[in-house]
Write a structure and sequence with these properties.
The protein is an alpha/beta fold and 232 residues long. The protein folds into 2 domains: 109 residues, 3-Layer(aba) Sandwich (D-Maltodextrin-Binding Protein, domain 2); 111 residues, D-Maltodextrin-Binding Protein, domain 2 (3-Layer(aba) Sandwich), CATH 3.40.190. It has 10 helices and 9 strands. The longest helix has 13 residues. The protein is elongated and about 55 Å long. This is Molybdenum ABC transporter substrate-binding protein.
């Protein structure tokens, strides 16, 4: 069976798919690309059985008839975290696990940053919108650097291309050359629910639904936690 996903969930989906095979379910070949590209390929009619994207993107695909709306299933909740180069003098992660005490402190960090990295997809869109809502676009807009689709923000942080990077925590953990300050403060947190759905063009919708149900089952939660995802 074929599936497509955004890069943010590629590692957890690989482990979940392996667990599904061990449970006797069909093997899943997952193509992980930029979220925008994944949605466009499904919309173009490419042959897939399952698609895994941010829930908002799946709703749009369902509305257009590309995925079975009845099968859209929340799988994981992902938080956006903040990272700096490993040699940065920024303070370590706070005891509560956040990068900054509150939104006010984060705004000051944005003002002080020379270059700010952010990702494609819903989390990047939300960050840019938040900056605009704060009235900071004119002040920091020319310092915002969006990573190319499928390229992790961590790579730009490690290379020193940006000195403050925002991306899903699961995408930052374990990347070399960076130090994760923590997730965004609760008063300005950016959380994304990633979900799965059966593609309407699937040749095996029944089997696809069985695999999707396994990925959403309670037994799969430990694997998600290992990859720094929580339950929606």
């Amino acid at each position: 069976m074929r599936a497509i996903s955004s890069m943010a969930t590629r590692h957890v989906l690989a482990d979940l798919a392996a667990a599904a095979v061990e449970a006797g379910l069909p093997e899943l070949d997952i193509d992980s690309v930029g979220g925008v590209d994944a949605a466009e390929r499904v919309a173009a009619g490419e042959s897939f059985d399952l698609v895994f994207l941010a829930s908002g993107a799946l709703v749009k695909l369902a509305d257009a008839g590309h995925v079975d709306a009845a099968t859209v299933t929340p799988l994981v909740l992902s938080q956006v975290a903040v990272a700096v180069p490993s040699h940065s003098s920024e303070p370590a992660t706070r005891p509560e696990g956040t990068a900054f005490a509150d939104a006010a402190e984060l705004r000051e960090a944005l003002r002080s940053a020379t270059r700010i990295g952010y990702s494609t997809g819903p989390s990047g869109t939300a960050l840019v919108q938040m900056i605009d809502d704060w009235g900071l676009t004119d002040e920091v807009g020319d310092r915002l650097m969006q990573a190319k689709p499928g390229i992790p923000v961590a790579k730009s942080v490690a290379a020193g291309v940006v000195d403050l990077g925002f991306q899903q925590l699961s995408e930052l953990v374990g990347q070399p050359g960076i130090r994760i300050l923590g997730v965004m403060p609760s008063d300005c947190a950016i959380d994304t629910v990633f979900a799965g759905a059966v593609v309407t063009a699937s040749a095996s919708p029944g089997h696809a639904a069985e695999v999707l149900a396994f990925l959403a089952a309670e037994a799969a939660q430990p694997i998600k936690a290992e990859h720094n995802f929580s339950t929606p």
